[in-house]
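Project outcomes to date are best conveyed with an example. Our students and postdoctoral researchers have been running inverse folding experiments weekly, and each run begins with a structure described purely in tokens. The record below, which covers 465 residues, was selected by the lab manager from last quarter's runs and is presented without edits.
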């Protein structure tokens, strides 16, 4: 009988890694990093032998879905990687960035330990830039949406648009056991039907088994239209009172959505004499990839790219690559909008801008993404009066806006509606959620669908499908 064992994103949101074994073929779906409070688990052994894996399917290029792939390669994986072309391109820049951060963190810890004479006890970095290069020297097969790839006589996979980020997919796996044909769908991360930048989530069809994320299984989002209105209002209010705007943003998807809205504002003459800075080398690179892959974008943006009008560029926009350019933004005292990473203010250039602007009540800080417990962004939202950056105490006096409706994940209703588009589901397995989120989602699924069994997957539990 075929089995699926989850080695990550079971009872938690990060570390996605699910091993399907059917007829002796081992297919790994995602190999992500554990993040936040479970970060250390990324350094533990996988729980399986990487050299045994035949295929590695990547649903999309967020670090919690791809962040352990170089470790997998370093430890012996020599199979075939299958993903959309956009996912491979994005994965390359994301993993390079991750490796740089891992090395920087290692160097800081090593120097500190060296001063105490304890450098021998310092854990080696998870991987380095060479491991990232090795990853992309493996055999890579590009998947196209809705085109079946036969891996062998009794195993085939098909990618479908997940409406989450550039290149994202949910994956349908078909296999034969004896005389029986079976199907299992792995959702990866799913968005919803209508997205600002990428194509929307494709409907389901027929499957026996569904592995589905449950990140927002316990909640409903505000509508995207309402959120855009709130966002524009926050910008206009701030500029009108002579202040500047800081937007901590994730490099992938959220930044492009923000640029898309700011471009509209620019064209509507709502940003006259305003300078917009995209102050993140990673976000600049990611935006280039959105232009490189127009067919992954929704119809409106695809058309814009094909007609050679970059949908993410407008006359007020400045891209700041170098550290010097970034520091020079400090000279702009008013009419300035700064988009910088990291999205949860745990590092990156946004901290430098906080130093110069967070103390000023005329300025605004607009959060456009979820701030995880324990991050600086969350501390600010929770109302802290002071923060400390590089040992300097900074008063939090800027006006704080929190816009909640920009999520790249579907909410409870989106996911229930999506489940409803499938035929034939007998079993639903919940992954990629904290236990309270998965429990609430399980109750909601049971309430809406009578004849479906729902199970919250535990890490390393053998599920027979
Ligand atoms: Zn994701």
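After processing, the design step wrote out the following sequence:
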């Amino acid at each position: 009988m075929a089995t699926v064992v989850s080695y990550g994103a079971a009872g938690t949101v990060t570390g996605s890694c699910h091993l399907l074994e059917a007829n002796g073929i081992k297919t790994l779906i995602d190999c992500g990093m554990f993040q936040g409070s479970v970060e250390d688990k990324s350094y533990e052994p996988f729980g399986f032998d990487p050299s045994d894996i035949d295929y590695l399917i990547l649903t999309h290029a967020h670090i919690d879905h791809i962040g352990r792939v170089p470790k997998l390669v370093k430890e012996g994986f020599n199979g075939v990687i299958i993903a959309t072309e956009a996912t491979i391109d994005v994965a390359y820049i994301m993993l390079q960035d991750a490796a740089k951060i891992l090395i920087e963190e290692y160097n800081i810890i090593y120097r500190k330990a060296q001063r105490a004479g304890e450098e021998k006890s310092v854990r080696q970095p998870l991987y380095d830039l060479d491991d990232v290069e090795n990853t992309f020297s493996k055999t890579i097969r590009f998947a196209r949406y809705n085109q079946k790839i036969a891996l062998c006589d009794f195993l085939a996979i098909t990618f479908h648009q997940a409406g989450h980020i550039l290149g994202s997919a949910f994956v349908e796996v078909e296999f034969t056991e004896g005389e029986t044909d079976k199907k299992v769908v792995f959702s990866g991360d799913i968005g919803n039907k209508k997205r600002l930048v990428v194509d929307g989530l494709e409907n389901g069809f027929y499957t026996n088994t569904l592995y589905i994320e449950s990140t927002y299984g316990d909640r409903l989002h505000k509508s995207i239209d309402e959120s855009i209105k709130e966002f524009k209002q926050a910008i206009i209010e701030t500029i009108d009172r002579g202040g500047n705007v800081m937007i901590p943003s994730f490099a992938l998807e959220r930044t492009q959505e923000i640029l898309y809205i700011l471009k509209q504002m620019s064209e509507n003459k709502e940003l006259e004499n305003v300078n917009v800075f995209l102050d993140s080398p990673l976000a600049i690179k990611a935006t280039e990839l959105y232009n490189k892959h127009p067919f992954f974008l929704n119809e409106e943006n695809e058309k814009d790219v094909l007609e050679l009008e970059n949908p993410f560029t407008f006359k007020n926009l400045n891209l700041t690559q170098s550290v010097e350019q970034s520091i020079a933004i400090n000279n702009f005292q008013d009419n300035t909008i700064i988009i910088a990473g990291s999205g949860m203010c745990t590092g990156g250039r946004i901290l430098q801008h906080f130093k110069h602007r967070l103390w000023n009540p005329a300025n605004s800080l607009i959060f456009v993404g979820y701030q995880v417990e324990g991050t600086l962004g969350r501390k600010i939202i929770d109302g802290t009066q002071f923060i400390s950056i590089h040992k300097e105490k900074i008063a939090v006096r800027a006006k704080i806006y929190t816009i909640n409706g920009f999520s790249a994940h579907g909410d409870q209703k989106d996911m229930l509606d999506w489940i409803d588009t499938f035929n034939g589901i007998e079993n639903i397995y919940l992954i990629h959620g904290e236990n309270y989120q998965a429990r609430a989602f399980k109750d909601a699924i049971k309430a809406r669908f009578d004849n479906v069994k729902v199970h919250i997957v535990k890490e390393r539990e053998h599920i027979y499908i």
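The domain at 224-402 is CATH 3.40.50.10890 (Rossmann fold). The longest strand covers residues 169-177. The training component of this project remains on track.
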